[in-house]
Backbone:
C-alpha cells in the first residue's frame, strides 16, 4: 500500500497553524537581563521551532555572535525575563540567529560509540544514519578528515564510474583546486557533500537532501558538482563550518574548556609514556608495594611513582596533577601502566611487521628456555632484509616478536603456535624462506620435526641448524673424546670451585702476584658446557694464572689449619703439577682461541651463510695446522713447566694392552674424529647458492650457469623466473672488473648502481640468501633479557606483561621514533575513558 500524500489544503492548514504558534512565542530580547550575562537555552527557544525562515549571515549577525561570552550554567531551568537596557535585538536579528546551529555538550549517542575507529575510512557516510549528528560525533568525523578513497571505483549499469579527478576543480589557467567537501562513500557507492551533511540547515524551505543522502548518477556529474558548490545551501553550511573550525560558535568557551582539558590530559599521558619508556628500556622494575597513588608511604612506592614525584618538582603539568587532591583520576595506577605498556609494545611489533610485509621474504628463528617459575618460554625472532631504494642501501634485521609460554612440547604444538602467531601478525607464511633452530629433535627432526612440518607448508623454507650451537657441540664432543681430556676439564672446574667457594682463598689468589695490578681482572672462570665461549675463558685464565695458582695452593698447604682445606689443596696441586696437564693446557688454549675467533662473528646479525662457511673452513685449517705443529706446543709447555720447576719429562707408566681377538689387526687406534665433525649443515645450504658468489660466477661458463640456474629455479619456482640464467650471463660482463667477492656485496652493487630492474631475479636470490639465518644468537640474547625482567623479585609478572616489557627493552632503538600522539589516541579509543584525550 502506497504512502498517503496530504492534499494542498491540508498542507496550507498545517502551515497556518505552525505560523500562529510561532507568533505566540516571546521575542528573543525578552530573555536577556542585566543581572545574568547569559543563560543556557536563550537562543534554543527560537532555533528548535520548525519552519523558521533562515536568512544569510551578515556582519550584524557575526558581531552579535562574537559579543556573546557563553559560560556553561548548571541551574538554567528557569528563564530570566529581565531585559538588559543596553542590548536590543530586533525580529530580523532573531530570525538570523536561527540559521546558526548551537552545539550543546551532550553525551555521545550510541552512534558515536559504535564508530569503528580501526577501519581505513572511519568517516564514511554509509556508517551513519540520515539524522543530524551530535557535536561529539561531528568532532570525531572532522578529526578523521573527509572520506576520499583512491580505489578502483565500481561501474554502474551504464558503464560509468566515479573518478578521483572530481576531487579537484580545474581552472582555466590549469590550476587544480581541491574540493574538501566532496567525499565518496565506499559502502553506499555514492558521492556526497560532507559540509552539507554535517552543517546544512534542514529546517530551511530550500533545503535539498540529494547531496546529503548521496548522488550515484555519474552522468553529467561535473555539472552537478559545480551547481551544488555554488548553491546557497552549500555556502551557508560552509559558513557554519568555518565558524565551528574557528571556535566562533556560540559555546566557544565550553569548547575551549574541553580542548584545554584534553590538552592537559594529553600532556599528562605523554609524560607517563616517556617515564615508562625510560624505565622499561633500562630493565628497571616499575612497581613497588603500592596499589594506587597515595595509598601508602611515598618512600615505599615503586620506581614509576617515585620518578613521577621527582619530575613533578620541576614540571608544572605533573605538579598540578599530583597536587590536585579533589580529582581522584590521575592515570597512575598499575592497570593504566600495564595498558600503556601493551599499547607501546604492540605499536613496535606492528611497525616491525609493516617492514616485514614490505620486504620480499623473511625467516623464522626460534628457541626456548625455562624462566624462574619453570615455565617454558618460546622466543620468536623474524629475520628479513629491509631495502631502501631511495638511499641505495639495505639492512639485515632480526626483530623480536615476543615470548610465548609453551604448555605442550610436540612438533605439532609448535606448528600450531607458529600458524597462530603468523596469522595474528598478518604475515604471509608462504613468504618464509628460512628456519633457524637449535639441534633439539623436536625442532630439527627430519621426519616429524618442526622444520619438516613448516617445509610441508612452504617447501622453500630452508632449515639451518644454528652454527654456534653446532660449533659448541663440536667442542663439547671433542672435550669428551678421551678420558684424559675429561679429567683435564674436571680439574679446571675443580680449581675454580675451590677458590670461588671461599672469600679468603679468592682474595689470596687475586693479590698474590707480582703483576697483580695488571692481571687482576683476569680471574678464574667457570667451565659451562652450554655457554659457547666458557671453555676458552676458563682455560685461558688458568694458563695466565698457572704459577699464581700453584703458589697459593702451596701457601694454603703450609699455613692452613683446616684439614679438609689442606687435603683439597694437596690433591689439586698434585693433579696440575705434572707435564701432562701443562701440555694439555697449552694444546687446548690455541685450539679454543681459534674457535673463539669465529664464535663472536657468528653471533652477528649481519653475517651471511657464505661468510659463516668460510670462517668454519678456516677453523678446520687452523686445527690441522696445530696438529702438525706439535713441537711448538711442546716447547710452550716446557717453558711453562720451568717457571715452577716441573719436570719436562713424562712419568713412566705401565703399558695397558687390550685383549686382541683373532680377527683384529695390529696397530694403534685413534678416535674417529674427522674433518666432518667441524662441518655443519651450513656448508650444504651455502653450496646451493655458491654459484652466486662473484668470484665463482666469473669462473663458470655459460653451460654451467644454465645448469645451476635451472636447479635453482626448480627450488624457488615461486620467486625466480626462467630469465634467471640470462641475467646471470649478462651480470658477468658487468662485474668483471669489480672487486666484490661475497653475495652480500653483490646485492649492494646491484642496488647502489641502479640495476634492481635489470637483474630482479638475481637481487631476489641475494635477498633470499641473506634472509636465511646463520645462528639463533638473537633468541639466546633475548633469554638474557628474560632473566633480567622476570627475576626472583618480579616472578609474578604475567605472560603478556613479560612479553611487552621484553619487546620494549630488546627493540629499544624503535622507541626513540615512536609516535606519542598515536599512542595517546590509541589509548583514548581503546575504551571509554573518564577524561577526554581527543582535541
Residues:
Amino acid at each position: 500500500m502506497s504512502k498517503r500524500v496530504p492534499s494542498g489544503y491540508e498542507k496550507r492548514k498545517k502551515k497556518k497553524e505552525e505560523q500562529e504558534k510561532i507568533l505566540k512565542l516571546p521575542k528573543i530580547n525578552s530573555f536577556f537581563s542585566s543581572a545574568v550575562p547569559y543563560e543556557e537555552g536563550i537562543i534554543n527557544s527560537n532555533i528548535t521551532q520548525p519552519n523558521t525562515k533562515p536568512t544569510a549571515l551578515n556582519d550584524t549577525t557575526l558581531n552579535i555572535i562574537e559579543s556573546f561570552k557563553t559560560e556553561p550554567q548548571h541551574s538554567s531551568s528557569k528563564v530570566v525575563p529581565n531585559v538588559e537596557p543596553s542590548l536590543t535585538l530586533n525580529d530580523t536579528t532573531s530570525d538570523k540567529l536561527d540559521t546558526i546551529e548551537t552545539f550543546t555538550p551532550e553525551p555521545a549517542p550510541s552512534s558515536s560509540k559504535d564508530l569503528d575507529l580501526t577501519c581505513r575510512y572511519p568517516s564514511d557516510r554509509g556508517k551513519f544514519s540520515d539524522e543530524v549528528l551530535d557535536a561529539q560525533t561531528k568532532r570525531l568525523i572532522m578529526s578523521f578528515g573527509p572520506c576520499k578513497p583512491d580505489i578502483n571505483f565500481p561501474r554502474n549499469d551504464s558503464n560509468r564510474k566515479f573518478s578521483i579527478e572530481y576531487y579537484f576543480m580545474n581552472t582555466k589557467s590549469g590550476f587544480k583546486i581541491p574540493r574538501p567537501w566532496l567525499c565518496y562513500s565506499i559502502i553506499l557507492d555514492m558521492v556526497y557533500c560532507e559540509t552539507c551533511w554535517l552543517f546544512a540547515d534542514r529546517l530551511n524551505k530550500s533545503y535539498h537532501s540529494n547531496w546529503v543522502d548521496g548522488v550515484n548518477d555519474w552522468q553529467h556529474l561535473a555539472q552537478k558538482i559545480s551547481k551544488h558548490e555554488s548553491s546557497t545551501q552549500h555556502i551557508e553550511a560552509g559558513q557554519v563550518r568555518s565558524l565551528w573550525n574557528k571556535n566562533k560558535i556560540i559555546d566557544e568557551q565550553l569548547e575551549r574548556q574541553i580542548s584545554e582539558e584534553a590538552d592537559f590530559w594529553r600532556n599528562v599521558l605523554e609524560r607517563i609514556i616517556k617515564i615508562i619508556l625510560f624505565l622499561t628500556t633500562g630493565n628497571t622494575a616499575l612497581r613497588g608495594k603500592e596499589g594506587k597513588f597515595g595509598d601508602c608511604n611515598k618512600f615505599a612506592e615503586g620506581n614509576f611513582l617515585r620518578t613521577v614525584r621527582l619530575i613533578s618538582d620541576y614540571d608544572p603539568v605533573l605538579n598540578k596533577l599530583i597536587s590536585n587532591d579533589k580529582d581522584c583520576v590521575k592515570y597512575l595506577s598499575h592497570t593504566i601502566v600495564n595498558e600503556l605498556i601493551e599499547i607501546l609494545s604492540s605499536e613496535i611489533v606492528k611497525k616491525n611487521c609493516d617492514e616485514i610485509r614490505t620486504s620480499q621474504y623473511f625467516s623464522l628463528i626460534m628457541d626456548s628456555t625455562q624462566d624462574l617459575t619453570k615455565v617454558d618460554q618460546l622466543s620468536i625472532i623474524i629475520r628479513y632484509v629491509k631495502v631502501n631504494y631511495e638511499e641505495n642501501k639495505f639492512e639485515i634485521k632480526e626483530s623480536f616478536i615476543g615470548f610465548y609460554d609453551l604448555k605442550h612440547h610436540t612438533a605439532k604444538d609448535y606448528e600450531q603456535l607458529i600458524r597462530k602467531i603468523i596469522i595474528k601478525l598478518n604475515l604471509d607464511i608462504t613468504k618464509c624462506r628460512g628456519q633457524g633452530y637449535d639441534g633439539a629433535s623436536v625442532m630439527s627432526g627430519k621426519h616429524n620435526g618442526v622444520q619438516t612440518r613448516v617445509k610441508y607448508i612452504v617447501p622453500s623454507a630452508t632449515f639451518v641448524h644454528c652454527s654456534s650451537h653446532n660449533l659448541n657441540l663440536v667442542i663439547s664432543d671433542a672435550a669428551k673424546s678421551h678420558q684424559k681430556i675429561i679429567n683435564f676439564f674436571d680439574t679446571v672446574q675443580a680449581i675454580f670451585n675451590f677458590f670461588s667457594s671461599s672469600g679468603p682463598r679468592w682474595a689470596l689468589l687475586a693479590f698474590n702476584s707480582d703483576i697483580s695490578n695488571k692481571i687482576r681482572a683476569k680471574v678464574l672462570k667457570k667451565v659451562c658446557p652450554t655457554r659457547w665461549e666458557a671453555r676458552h675463558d676458563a682455560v685461558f685464565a688458568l694458563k695466565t694464572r698457572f704459577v699464581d695458582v700453584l703458589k697459593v695452593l702451596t701457601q694454603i698447604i703450609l699455613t692452613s689449619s683446616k684439614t679438609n682445606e689442606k687435603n683439597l689443596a694437596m690433591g689439586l696441586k698434585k693433579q696440575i703439577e705434572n707435564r701432562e696437564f701443562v701440555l694439555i693446557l697449552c694444546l687446548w688454549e690455541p685450539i679454543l682461541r681459534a674457535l673463539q675467533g669465529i664464535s663472536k662473528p657468528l653471533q652477528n646479525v649481519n653475517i651471511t651463510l657464505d661468510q659463516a662457511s668460510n670462517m668454519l673452513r678456516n677453523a678446520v685449517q687452523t686445527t690441522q695446522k696445530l696438529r702438525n705443529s706439535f713441537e711448538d706446543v711442546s716447547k710452550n709447555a716446557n717453558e711453562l713447566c720451568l717457571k715452577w720447576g716441573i719436570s719436562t719429562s713424562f712419568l713412566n707408566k705401565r703399558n695397558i694392552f687390550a685383549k686382541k681377538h683373532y680377527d683384529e689387526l695390529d696397530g694403534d687406534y685413534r678416535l674417529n674424529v674427522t674433518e666432518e665433525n667441524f662441518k655443519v649443515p651450513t656448508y650444504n645450504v651455502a653450496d646451493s647458492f655458491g654459484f652466486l658468489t662473484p668470484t665463482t660466477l666469473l669462473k663458470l661458463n655459460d653451460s654451467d650457469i644454465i645448469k645451476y640456474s635451472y636447479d635453482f629455479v626448480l627450488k624457488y619456482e615461486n620467486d625466480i623466473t626462467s630469465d634467471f640464467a640470462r641475467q646471470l650471463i649478462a651480470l658477468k660482463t658487468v662485474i668483471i672488473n669489480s672487486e666484490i667477492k661475497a653475495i652480500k656485496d653483490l646485492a649492494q652493487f646491484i642496488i647502489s648502481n641502479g640495476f634492481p630492474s635489470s637483474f630482479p631475479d638475481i637481487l631476489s636470490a641475494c635477498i633470499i640468501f641473506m634472509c636465511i639465518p646463520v645462528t639463533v644468537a638473537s633468541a639466546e640474547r633475548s633469554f638474557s633479557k628474560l632473566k633480567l625482567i622476570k627475576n626472583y623479585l618480579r616472578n609474578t609478572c604475567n605472560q603478556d606483561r613479560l612479553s611487552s616489557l621484553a619487546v620494549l627493552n630488546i627493540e629499544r632503538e624503535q622507541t626513540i621514533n615512536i609516535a606519542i600522539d598515536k599512542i595517546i589516541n590509541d589509548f583514548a579509543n581503546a575504551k571509554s575513558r573518564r577524561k577526554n584525550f581527543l582535541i
Remarks:
- The longest helix spans residues 252-280.
- The chain has a mean pLDDT of 78.
